[in-house]
From TrEMBL:
InterPro entries: HTH_LacI (IPR000843), LacI/GalR-like_sensor (IPR046335), Lambda_DNA-bd_dom_sf (IPR010982), Peripla_BP_I (IPR028082). Residues 22-76 form the HTH lacI-type domain. This is LacI family DNA-binding transcriptional regulator. Pfam families: LacI (PF00356), Peripla_BP_3 (PF13377). PROSITE patterns: HTH_LACI_1, HTH_LACI_2. Keywords: DNA-binding, Transcription, Transcription regulation. Transmembrane segments: none annotated. One of its GO terms (molecular function) is DNA binding. The keyword DNA-binding applies. Residues 1-11 have a biased composition (Basic residues). Residues 1-20 are annotated as: Disordered. Gene3D superfamilies: 3.40.50.2300, lambda repressor-like DNA-binding domains (1.10.260.40).
Length: 362
């Protein structure tokens, strides 16, 4: 009898074992796409083509896949937030991240940092999708180039804070600097020092179509406005490169090639101003004796004695702290959109002085 029962159990074991649950990986293999593509289709996310959706949906139906709702419910929060930055070299972003870290300290939340691409919309989109797929509780995007419509789609999936952009949205919170006021401070400062030939280094718009509301547009527009208001529209000179050391270097060489050359350069970011200082040194020109230089961001490097760069302080640490605080509020359930604007201040240092022969500041 015992042997008979043992044989009976052995013979029926395959029927008693529960069927292995179909996973996203199974669906991806069956449809011959990536697991990220399956995730996009399941979330009805941006970036999945109609053909891909059809293949994935067919695989789901054939395999009988069901999203594991119970597992999702048990997961709850991951106590992580995603932070997207354009690139890691800009020291202003480090100030923002310091503020984020200060705000998250003791909260139980950790930040997951991803690099977007600065001018590469596809790279930024992949980075955002990676954060969503890792089920972060919310996302902070620093100066994203993603169109507003897509930002609002992301905000429909999870809490979102956008830092550095000026447009209004009811779907996400915004933290930004009053770039118009900051630019007016620095351009007026140079005009009061007697400068008339003031050049500006801006950066190119990313992608195609209508440019997003990023700071470089406001700073360039305000530079034009203030110059025009002071009767200097004929002296307007903008070098459009990038807000990097290389961009500042190339932009300065472009401005120095003008005749007559500018006596002052307003770089739209400190990082570009550092490149400007390098180009002027290479050209054998003194700062500020021959050419004054001003930046924007008031990064820690700007205050170093051997650099002493005049700059506009937009308090990146405060912006980071505020953005993280607003994001945690969103995670806790706030839905009303908030906007937080930082009031900038000019920090004059040794890189700006009277225009040659003007007698200003004497």
């Amino acid at each position: 009898m015992a042997g008979h029962m043992a044989g009976h159990r052995a013979g029926h074991r395959p029927e008693r074992e529960p069927r292995r649950r179909v996973t996203i990986a199974d669906v991806a293999r069956h449809a011959q796409v990536s697991t990220t593509a399956v995730s996009k289709v399941l979330r009805n996310a941006y970036g999945a083509s109609p053909a891909m959706r059809d293949r994935v949906k067919a695989a789901i139906e054939e395999l009988g896949y069901r999203p594991h709702a119970a597992a999702r419910a048990m997961r709850g929060r991951t106590f992580t937030i995603g932070v997207l930055i354009p690139h890691v070299r800009n020291p202003f972003f480090a100030d923002v991240l310091d503020g984020v870290g200060e705000q998250l300290g003791g909260s139980g939340y950790q930040a997951i940092l991803v690099q977007g691409g600065s001018t590469d919309l596809a790279a930024e989109s992949r980075a955002v999708e990676a954060l969503i797929d890792r089920q972060v509780d919310g996302i902070l995007m620093i100066a994203p180039i993603t169109p507003k419509s897509r930002l609002e789609e992301v905000a429909g999936e999870m809490p979102l804070i956008v830092l550095g952009r000026h447009e209004r949205s009811s779907a996400y919170d915004a933290v930004f600097d009053d770039d118009d006021a900051g630019t007016e401070l620095v351009v007026r400062h140079l005009i009061e020092l007697g400068h008339r030939r003031i050049g500006h280094i801006s950066q190119r718009n990313a992608g195609r179509g209508k440019p997003v509301a990023l700071p470089h547009l406001t700073r360039a527009e305000t530079y034009r406005r203030v110059m025009t208001e002071h009767g200097l529209e004929g002296e307007i000179a903008i070098a459009t490169t990038s807000w990097t050391e290389e961009g500042g270097y190339d932009g300065t060489r472009e401005l120095l090639a003008r005749s007559p050359r500018p006596t002052a350069i307003f770089a739209g970011a400190d990082q570009a101003a550092f490149g400007a200082l390098s180009a002027l040194h290479e050209a054998g020109l003194s700062v500020p004796g021959d050419v004054s230089v001003a930046g924007y961001d008031n990064t820690r490097l700007a205050a170093m004695a051997n650099i002493s760069l005049t700059s506009v302080d937009q308090d990146g640490t405060l912006m980071g702290r505020t953005a993280a605080r607003l994001l945690l509020e969103r995670v806790e359930g706030r839905t009303a959109a908030m906007r937080f604007s930082v009031t900038p201040a000019l920090v004059p240092r040794l890189s700006t002085g009277p225009a040659p022969g003007s007698g200003a500041g004497a």
